[in-house]
Specification:
Blueprint: E1 4-6, H1 19-22, H2 24-35, H3 51-55, H4 60-67, H5 73-79, H6 85-108, E2 110-113, H7 134-144, E3 151-155, H8 162-167, E4 174-181, E5 194-198, H9 204-222, E6 226-230, H10 248-264, E7 269-272, H11 281-298
Parallel strand pairs: 1-2, 2-7, 3-4, 3-6, 4-5, 6-7
Helix pairs in contact: 2-11, 6-7, 9-10, 10-11
């Protein structure tokens, strides 16, 4: 049995217009089981957390309005989702899954949330298909319970982790690192502890060289005792929204760099899958599956 915990949160319903991008949450577990990268015992069903775990990083007024379906039309448009009770349940379940992943990573070294990576959610509002910030909540949970003293968030989704950066702007115990498309969403970027904006068309070689130069230095300087990794595959050249030019092999090498460093340094890591919007679902599923395959080879 692999020492990897999975938190599938794909079963919760979404509006019809958003179902294709979410198809990966059904297909990815099936692929991992089919090829033997994971077994049924590796999966756990995520559960909503206590409110206190959410309110460490979210404003109580915003959270109550979200729970009760009282967001304004403008706020709903900013999130990209029409509100529903099922959507709210899905969001708090994803967040609870990432907190549980943090607990399991402490025990097993690594844990995955097949959903998660809702890095555009701010303390008091949602944006960009993100209503509640799961990695921020899990980082705050670790700190509150004394399970970590310094957390590094490695956000390699093609979009800047603006919500995460804003939430932890004045929290010295969390270091936010975002390497993203410089001209991509959001138009107004927040200030992470380290931002590396990339030009459109960035290739495997350019991307990997910059990451290989940056991440070892960060580990040495920040000295984290826990890492969150947002492994978005919207960096692929096939992605409709990404505008970078990474191949599937380059994306896998990115995962090898990040996870290999965490493994060598003995750092527990939680991986959330983040974005992926290629026209072909196989490009999305295979790129995400590579992240799990890399981890399975390291944490045997």
């Amino acid at each position: 049995m692999l020492s990897i915990a999975f938190a599938p949160c794909y079963a919760h319903p979404l509006p019809a217009g958003h179902r294709f991008p979410m198809l990966k949450y059904e297909l990815l577990p099936e692929q991992l089981l089919h090829e033997g990268t994971a077994t049924a015992a590796d999966f756990f069903v995520a559960q909503p957390p206590p409110d206190e775990d959410i309110l460490r990083v979210h404003d109580a007024g915003y959270y109550q309005r979200l729970r009760q379906g009282q967001l304004t039309r403008q706020e709903e448009r900013a999130t990209g989702f029409p509100w529903s009770a099922e959507l709210f349940e899905r969001e708090i379940t994803i967040l609870g899954g990432t907190i549980e992943c943090a607990r399991r990573a402490l025990a097993h070294g690594i844990a995955f949330n097949i959903a998660g990576g809702t890095h555009h959610a701010f303390r008091d509002r949602g944006e960009g298909f993100c209503l509640l910030n799961d990695q921020a909540a899990a980082a705050a949970w670790l700190l509150a319970h004394g399970h970590a003293t310094k957390v590094l968030i490695v956000d390699l989704d093609v979009h800047q982790g603006n919500g995460t950066a804003a939430i932890f702007r004045h929290e010295s115990r969390v270091f936010t690192f975002s390497m993203h498309g410089g001209r991509n969403y959001p138009a107004r970027k927040e200030l992470s502890d380290l931002d590396l904006p990339l030009p459109d068309g960035t290739t495997d070689a350019e991307y990997l060289a910059l990451l290989a130069e940056t991440l070892p230095r960060l580990l040495a300087e920040v000295r984290p005792d826990f890492v969150f990794y947002l492994a978005g595959v919207d960096v692929l050249a096939t992605d409709k929204l990404g505008h970078l030019a990474l191949t599937r092999a380059g994306c896998r090498r990115r995962d090898e760099l990040v996870l290999g460093l965490c493994h060598r340094h003995g750092l527990p890591v939680v991986v959330c899958m983040g974005g992926g919007y290629s026209e072909g679902i196989i490009d999305i599923v295979e790129a995400h599956a590579n992240t799990f395959r890399v981890a399975a080879g390291l944490w045997e």
